[in-house]
Input
Amino acid sequence: MPGSWKDVFHSFNKKATPSRYAIVKVFEEKAKHLSAEEVYECLKVRKQKIGIATVYRNLDLLLRMGILRKVNFGDGKEHYEMVHRPTQYHHHLICTNCGQVIDYGEVVQEEKSFLKRLKEELERKYHFRIESHHIYFYGLCHHCQKE
Amino acid sequence: MPGSWKDVFHSFNKKATPSRYAIVKVFEEKAKHLSAEEVYECLKVRKQKIGIATVYRNLDLLLRMGILRKVNFGDGKEHYEMVHRPTQYHHHLICTNCGQVIDYGEVVQEEKSFLKRLKEELERKYHFRIESHHIYFYGLCHHCQKE
DNA sequence: TTGAATGCAAATAATTTGCACGGAT
DNA sequence: ATCCGTGCAAATTATTTGCATTCAA
Output
């Protein structure tokens, strides 16, 4: 396992195991949101010996470590994706008909400044310390509009 | 049942049943997001004879009718809430420690115009027809910050 | 009257847990 | 050597489905 991930796990007083490394590698390589089952299937294809329970336990660990975040598309299962640096954040566009999900980056200039202001306003008003946010847009994808 | 709801169901070619009316009444009165189980428990307290399957079936119906929307707080169950007119929309602030959810309305002036622009940009770029959006903010509530 | 809606129980799907064993430190 | 992490199977939780019965139109 590359030293960097090893160090990350150790910095959280967690052991750097093959299972854990295999999971983060899947997310690094696929670079998209995956359900627990999808991670599990992907690892099976790669001949990585792992149980589904270990996948769930480590997804939860990676969540608590701040390496993954949960996203939910309303399809009955949780999905997970890597947390990117603030400059690389993205949100989701979900087709309510076919379930397709599109990741989009920053498309409008003032997005960051607007969200910063909204965040600060919410923190003051509700005495929260806000750590992240997520925007979901729902509608019909190109294909489903024609039906 | 008040004529208005009766008409709404009929306009969708659906029967106006006591179960359906009881469910919308719960959402009207509680005015907040509820899980299927919470709706069911609430109706039991009110002596409304109903099965949990009927609750799920009608939540789904009300979703398709555009009366309810699904919201997800990452706690393993779906929650539902009434869709309000665009001028009354609100989003959610979720405490990642205790799970508390705060509904917030429009707190920053340019919120609507910003989101309108973002929506239009996304529609053009991805050929979507966007119908709604939802913003979630995550962090620590006042109480959990002190721990 | 008649098909849509319901209640109940059983089925399914997603996720979690208990426990004995194996492996990272 | 020591526990943390793991696999497996069983348990739990959320949601869906099949079917006989009920009831709104």
